[in-house]
Amino acid sequence: SIILRADQQAANGEAALAHTNYLTAQTDLLNFQQLNPTWEPRIMAYRLKYLADKIAGKQEDFLTLETNAPIATHTPPAVATKAPVKLIDPGSEPRTVLRLHPAVGDQMNLSMTMKMTMAMAVAGKSIPAMNIPTMLMTLSVEVKGIAANGDIAYEMAFDDATVADDTNAQPMMVAAMKSSLASLKGLTASGRMSEHGIIKGMQMKLPASADPQLKQTMEQMKESFTSSSIPLPDAAVGPGAKWEYTTKLKSQGMTIDQTVHYELMAVSGDRITLHSTITQNADHQKIQNPAMPGISMNLEKMTGTGTGDSVMDLGQIMPQTANLAETIEMVMGMNLGQKEQTMDMNMTMNIAIQAK
C-alpha cells in the first residue's frame, strides 16, 4: 500500500512525498526480510529492486523540487504521522513547541570520537580486557531536501577517519584499525529524519570489497548517529519537561529494545540543553555478527544502560555537542569445536560529538 501510494504521488508530480514513501517501504521491507529471511525470496527481490530503481530515479527530481521549486502545501491524511514520543511532564512556563527547522543547503562540520573497552570470559575463564584505540572522525552533513510533511533528507560525508595513538593498545590492532578506517574517507551516507528529530532511515554506501570489520564499524556509526538524534514531543514544553522515546535498534546482528528518557534542562531561543538516560534490553535470539562470518551465536541476555548530555540548535539537524557513556553486558552461547560454550562480554562505550 505504501508503494502504491508513492506511485500515485509520483504520477501526480509530488516527487518529494513519493521519494519519502519509497524510502519508508524499502526500510520496512529490509527489516521484514531480516526477520523472515526465507519468506518468498523472489517476491522480496522483485520489490526491493523496484524500490531501488524508483529511489535512484526519483532522487534528482526530489532534490530539484525541494531546492528550486515550491513544495506541495498539503500532506494527505494517509501519510500524516505524529512523533511516537511519550510526554511525561510538560515542564514549567513559558512553554514552546520544539521542531527542527533547517534550510535546504545548510551544512554542519562535526568531529566525533568513540572509545570502547571490552572484557570477555569464555566458559568461566576470563580473557584479558581489550584496549581498543580511540576512533577519531571528521564529518560533514548537508540538508538536501525538506518534504511537505517536514521530513528532512540529508547527506553525510566522512572527511577523515583514524585512531588516536594509544600506548596501551597492541600495535597490530592500531595498524589494522587505521587501515580499516582509512577506507571510510570519502564514503557517504544518506538519511532522512522527521521534523521531530526521529531518524526514519539511513543508508551507508560501502564498497563491495568492504571487510567485516569495516562493516561492523559502520554499523556502530549508524547506531551512534541514531542515538545522538533527539526525538522531540508533539506538545509545547518548558524547562524541566520530561519525555521518553522507545524504539528497536538493529546492531551487530541483534534486535534491541531501547528506551531513552529526556529531561529539558534549559531553553534559550532555538538552543536547547538536554540530559538523557538510556536502557537497552534484547530477548533471546540467534545472531550473526558481521565481524565473525560463519559463526552463529545464541544471545541469552543483553542489557545496557547509559547517560548523555547534549546541546541542540533547532535550526540544525545534529547536536552542537553530545556526549554519551554506555555500559553493555551480554551472555551468549556459541559453538566451538562441536561444543557450545558460554561467553560473557562487558563493553563500555564513550562517544563525543562536537560541531566545528
Number of strands: 13
Largest sheet: 13 strands, antiparallel
Low-confidence stretches: 58-83
> What portion of the residues fall into strands of 2 or more residues?
35-45%
Helical content class: 10-25%
Query: Roughly how many Å is the radius of gyration?
Result: 21 Å
Q: Look at the structure and give the mean pLDDT.
A: 80
Q: First CA to last CA: what distance?
A: 43 Å
- Give the helix/strand class: alpha+beta
List the helices and strands and how they pair.
Blueprint: H1 2-11, H2 15-35, H3 41-68, E1 85-89, E2 107-122, E3 125-146, E4 152-163, H4 171-182, E5 188-193, E6 199-204, H5 212-228, E7 242-251, E8 254-268, E9 271-282, E10 285-288, E11 296-313, E12 321-336, E13 339-355
Antiparallel strand pairs: 1-7, 2-3, 2-13, 3-4, 4-5, 5-6, 7-8, 8-9, 9-11, 10-11, 11-12, 12-13
Helix pairs in contact: 1-2, 2-3
Task: Tell me about this structure.
Helix content is 25%, strand content 45%. It has 356 residues and is α+β, with helices and mostly antiparallel strands. It starts with a helix and ends with a strand. Mean pLDDT is 80; it is low at 58-83.
Provide a concise account of the structure shown:
The chain is an alpha+beta fold and 356 residues long.
Features:
single chain, alpha+beta, 13-stranded antiparallel sheet, 13 strands, globular
